[in-house]
Each structure stands twice: as structure tokens, then as C-alpha cells.
Specification:
Structural class: alpha/beta
Strand order of the largest sheet: 3-2-1-4-5-6
Bound molecules: nicotinamide-adenine-dinucleotide
CATH superfamily of the largest domain: NAD(P)-binding Rossmann-like Domain
Number of domains: 2
Distance between the termini: 65 Å
Helix content: 40-55%
Oligomer: single chain
Number of helices: 14
Length: 319
């Protein structure tokens, strides 16, 4: 039978991920600082313990899914952290989106204890699955795509020692459809940060374009249709359109609830800025996108889906 897998951080993402491990027959031992988030998993048979050290004492494979860099540092190196009890030869996979410099620091600290660290941030979520369903439906190929969408919803971008990738893949493939090896530790984070910077820029571009077209007298549905058969087409225009009423099953059709929060997007853009500064890389549009999403957070959009930038751009209508 399969040996216990540790899971730390049972939030929006961690909860369904840990459930998928259970579903694939892995006994799970888990913890979260917020006891309420452990309830569902406990009812499904997971063992819940008090802190990360206890998880590390019992499991030699551990997945962490935490909000940001300081939480990861705390869970690894804190007073009751993983490193207090980690076993030699353990495999520690961090799926949080954090600064790649912190991933490298954690990898060094873990290596000193004779264990292995890999960064494996994820892309995707509920709306990404819906998009796969919708596209499969439109193309009349329901079987293939629906299978892929239900078995694994996420894409993992993995950084670390290549020899350990197969071991990481065994666990990650229970939780995601795509598990991609990116290179040395930190490169998974790099891939994730790059994707989200482009996503942020594309969403703002789509929103201001749609807004301009609407004010020029175009019907939003028609404009989206034309963009999507032309060279302006992108994920934000054809899969996750930010204008209410253009598409069904996306946050713009549901008052921007659910989806990917503006605050998380602002965090990821902040990471992109930090890495761009460190590498002296010009990212003028990424920088502007960061400022726009930060302003949105200060104006009450923090908890709304990031496509609500469309509404933010239309605030002048209130005046
Ligand atoms: P979340 O806030 O819902 O969950 C994080 C969990 O970690 C919470 O339950 C919290 O109580 C727990 N936690 C925090 N500090 C802890 C500690 N010291 N010890 C134990 N538990 C602790 O966040 P989420 O939406 O699940 O996102 C997790 C990560 O995944 C983030 O880095 C985020 O950027 C990334 N991500 C999120 C999405 C998304 O759509 N939500 C998509 C892709 C990637």
C-alpha cells in the first residue's frame, strides 16, 4: 500500500489538491493554521496534526500550498517548521507561488538536512476547467477534453534536480493534467510569474479595448466575436472575457466572484517586478499592470476576480 503523503495549507487550492491525493489512494497527513480548513479533509479520512514539524515527523513526501513567501519561510524554518523534523531523503514540494529567490533559499536549507526540495507552482483552477469543457463542446470533441479536464485540472511547473522529477511527477500527476519540468530549482516559479505577467497585461489590454469599442457604438458580443477571429485574439478575449454578458460561465457573468483574485494577481506582479529588478530586465507593461492591480486593491476590488479591471476602467461613468 502507499505511504503517507504530507500536505500543508488547505486553502482554496490545497483543499482540492489534497482530496485528489486521497482519491488516488494516498493516505494524507495534513495541517493548516486555520482549523476550519482541515474539517472537510478530516471527514474524508486524512489525519490532521498540529504543525508542519509533526507532518515531517510522519511523512517523507510533503506538499505545501501557502499564500506567499513569508508563509513558506515560516512553514519550513519556523519553530514548528518542517526542517525541525525532516527525515533524510524526504521529498518536499512547494506549490505556492512565491519569489524564486526564496525557493532557492529553501532548497539550500533542505539540502543541508539531506532532503530534496522542488518548486512546483500551479496554473489553472475552476474556470480553466470550464474553459476546457466549453472549447471541447464547441469543437464537438467532448470525450477527449472532458476526460483531461476532470482527471486533472492544473498545470504544474516544476523546478529542481532532474533526477527527482519522476518522484515528484508521481504525486503531482494525481492533481494535475500537465506536469512540466522547467529546470533548476526556482525555474518553476519563473515560468509561473512570466505566465501571470502576460495574463495581467492581456486582461488589461482586452478590457480597455472592449471599453473603447463599446463607447464607439459596437455591441460587446459582436466586438468580442470579431477580435476572436482576428489578430487581437487572446485568452482574455476568447476564454475569460471581462465584459459582463459576453460569455457565460466566467466571473464577469457572476459579478466577478470566484476565479482569481485581484489581490493574488497583484502579488504575482510584485514578484515579477522583484525578479525583473534583480535581473535588470525592462518590463514596462508588467510594471504598469502591477500599479493598476494595486490601485484596484485599494479601491475595493481586492477580493474580486482580476477581470474586474474592466469595471475599474469604467469608473469614470459614475462621475
Ligand atoms: P488560500 O489563502 O486559500 O490558502 C492558503 C492556506 O494556507 C490557508 O488555508 C491558510 O490558513 C494556510 N496557511 C497560511 N500560513 C500557514 C502556516 N504557517 N501553516 C499552515 N497553514 C498556513 O490560498 P490559495 O488560493 O489556496 O493559493 C495558494 C497559492 O497558490 C498562492 O501562492 C496562490 O498565489 C497560488 N495560486 C492560486 C490560484 C487560485 O486560483 N486561487 C491559482 C494558481 C495559483
Amino acid at each position: 500500500s502507499k505511504t503517507q503523503v504530507g500536505f500543508i495549507g488547505l486553502g482554496n487550492m490545497g483543499n482540492p489538491m489534497a482530496k485528489n491525493l486521497l482519491k488516488h489512494g494516498y493516505p494524507v497527513i495534513a495541517t493548516d493554521v486555520f482549523p476550519e480548513s482541515c474539517k472537510e479533509l478530516q471527514e474524508l479520512g486524512a489525519q490532521i496534526v498540529d504543525n508542519p514539524a509533526e507532518v515531517a515527523d510522519k511523512a517523507d513526501r510533503i506538499v505545501t500550498m501557502l499564500p506567499s513567501s513569508p508563509n513558506v519561510i515560516d512553514v519550513y524554518t519556523g519553530a514548528n517548521g518542517i526542517l525541525k523534523k525532516v527525515k533524510k531523503g524526504s521529498l518536499l514540494i512547494d506549490s505556492s507561488t512565491i519569489d524564486p529567490a526564496v525557493s532557492k533559499e529553501m532548497a539550500l536549507a533542505v539540502e543541508k538536512m539531506g532532503a530534496v526540495f522542488m518548486d512546483a507552482p500551479v496554473s489553472g483552477g475552476r474556470y480553466a476547467i470550464l474553459a476546457v469543457f466549453r472549447r471541447a463542446h464547441l469543437n464537438g470533441q467532448e470525450d477527449a477534453s472532458v476526460g483531461a479536464a476532470t482527471s486533472g485540472k492544473l498545470t504544474f511547473m516544476v523546478g529542481g534536480v532532474e533526477e527527482e522529477f519522476t518522484a515528484a511527477q508521481e504525486l503531482l500527476s494525481c492533481m494535475g493534467a500537465n506536469v512540466v519540468y522547467c529546470g533548476a530549482v526556482g525555474t518553476g516559479q519563473a515560468a509561473k510569474i512570466c505566465n501571470n505577467m502576460l495574463l495581467a497585461i492581456g486582461m488589461i489590454g482586452t478590457s480597455e479595448t472592449m471599453n473603447l469599442g463599446i463607447r464607439l457604438g459596437l455591441d460587446p458580443k459582436l466586438l468580442a466575436k470579431i477580435l476572436n477571429m482576428s489578430s487581437g485574439r487572446c485568452w482574455s478575449s476568447d476564454t475569460y472575457n471581462p465584459v459582463p454578458g459576453v460569455m457565460e460561465g466566467v466571473p464577469s457573468g457572476n459579478n466577478y466572484q470566484g476565479g482569481f483574485g485581484t489581490q493574488l494577481m497583484a502579488k504575482d506582479l510584485g514578484l515579477a517586478q522583484a525578479t525583473a529588478t534583480n535581473t535588470k530586465t525592462p518590463v514596462p507593461l508588467g510594471s504598469l499592470a502591477h500599479q493598476i492591480y494595486r490601485m484596484m486593491c485599494a479601491r475595493g476590488y481586492a477580493g474580486k476576480d482580476f477581470s474586474s479591471v474592466f469595471m475599474f476602467l469604467r469608473e469614470d461613468e459614475k462621475e
